[in-house]
Amino acid sequence: MGRRLGANRRSARRQRRWAAYARVRRNGRRYAGACALFLAIVLAGTCVSQGIRLATQSIRASKRLLVSAIDVTGNRALGREEIVKAAGLQPGANLLDIHPSRVRDVLRKLPAVERVTVRRSLPGRLSVRVVERAPVALVNVGRVYQVDDDGVLFDLGRGAITALPVVTGLRDTVGADGVRRLSAAGQRRLRAFREAMGQSDPDWAQHLSQVEFSGNGTIRLTLDGHEAVVEMDGGDVTTRLNQLRRLLEVLAEEEGGAVRGISLCRNNVAYVRRAK
């Protein structure tokens, strides 16, 4: 009986060894298969990467991608060369190296530029369309700038000829974006005055040569063709401008010395100062 038990134990140990050996063989086959699959993937990826690199090099070497023409449109005050230089563009560059968004960001830093559109097209053509700011007046803040309706200040172009009035008495500031513009208070005063002119007579802007905003709210005007300095309070500017228009019509029909000054700082009362 004891001998039989020993034989059973030996048989059980052999079975366990064979089972362990079988597991090792199965695991080895699985591991080898996984390694082979991994190597195949790595090899395929390397081939694809190499293929992409060679294809990219081939594409970049194409002459159709070399910039041969740079079209600039929409510019009036800014010169074409000024825009091209500011954007860092040059013939012979590769279109793939030119990022329209970066060109737009660079050109929009020019104070006179409001919007920019940049397009690339084959063969080797780059189109830049700019929209310049529309000036509504000239502002003297230590030097004379043009100013648009958003209060942004920008230089006069070389040889610029303009009939815009010169505005004084307003302050400027430089924002976090590096753009010089009128202060918030200055923008409000200028915008309110321009709106009042439009409500009174849109042609007023063509007759003004100078507008002075004083610290106490008074506004002084100088008109083209008139020696008189017109002074009015900053309250109801539309009403004051309507009064001024009627007053000038009356004075044109009267005889007397040249008008040197007009004051409209009191309701329904106009003071006229003539040359002696």
Give an overview in words.
The chain has 276 residues and is of the alpha/beta class. The chain has helices at 2-60, 80-87, 100-107, 184-200, 204-207, 237-253, and strands at residues 69-73, 113-121, 125-132, 135-140, 144-148, 153-154, 166-168, 172-174, 180-182, 208-213, 219-223, 229-232, 259-266, 269-274. It is 41% helix and 26% strand. Helix 4 (184-200) crosses helix 6 (237-253). The protein is elongated. The mean pLDDT is 82.
Q: Choose one word for the global shape.
A: elongated
Kindly report the oligomeric state of this protein. Answer: single chain
Question: Rg to the nearest angstrom?
Answer: 40 Å
Count of beta strands: 14
Low-confidence stretches: none
Beta percentage is 25-35%
Brief digest:
It is built from six helices and 14 strands. By secondary structure, it is an alpha/beta fold. The strands form three sheets. Strands 6-5-4-7-10-11-12-13-14 form a nine-stranded mixed beta sheet. Strands 1-3-2 form a three-stranded mixed beta sheet. It has a two-stranded antiparallel sheet with strand order 8-9.
What is the topology?
Layout: H1 2-60, E1 69-73, H2 80-87, H3 100-107, E2 113-121, E3 125-132, E4 135-140, E5 144-148, E6 153-154, E7 166-168, E8 172-174, E9 180-182, H4 184-200, H5 204-207, E10 208-213, E11 219-223, E12 229-232, H6 237-253, E13 259-266, E14 269-274
Parallel strand pairs: 1-3, 4-7, 7-10, 12-13
Antiparallel strand pairs: 2-3, 4-5, 5-6, 8-9, 10-11, 11-12, 13-14
Helix pairs in contact: 4-6
